[in-house]
Design goal:
126 residues; mainly beta; 11 strands; 0% helix; globular
């Protein structure tokens, strides 16, 4: 059974850091593209970052470029999202998602992902 479980969310002050984890079971993450999305109340879901299966290429939304880093630990079958210099506008529920498709520049389109986690809340506030 395919499952994605996010963890690592919480309350952090502006300028702080969090590391989100996306633990996969039922499939091997290095064979899948794994993306992170977020959704704030009243806003559309936004693609934040993605790591491709074939060569490990990484992609970022302009809003997080230079602050967030996606990585993958094949031994732990887990994908991480390191978030630094957090801002109040980063507040959202964060979801990881996976697809066997090598998405490349389609990575921000949520319809291409087959599996989704339940989400973890990130709140950036003083």
């Amino acid at each position: 059974q395919v499952q994605l479980v996010e963890s690592g969310g919480g309350l952090v002050q502006p300028g702080g850091s969090l590391r989100l984890s996306c633990a996969a079971s039922g499939f091997t993450v290095d064979y899948y593209a794994v993306g992170w999305f977020r959704q704030a109340p009243g806003k559309e879901r936004e693609g934040v970052s993605c790591i491709m299966s074939s060569d490990g290429s990484t992609y970022y939304a302009d809003s997080v470029k230079g602050r967030f880093t996606i990585s993958r630990d094949n031994a732990k079958n887990t994908v991480y999202l390191q978030m630094n210099s957090l801002k109040p506008e980063d507040t959202a529920a964060y979801y990881c998602a996976a697809t066997i498709v090598d998405l490349r520049d389609r990575w921000q389109d949520a319809v291409h992902y087959d599996y989704w986690g339940q989400g973890t809340q990130v709140t950036v506030s003083s």
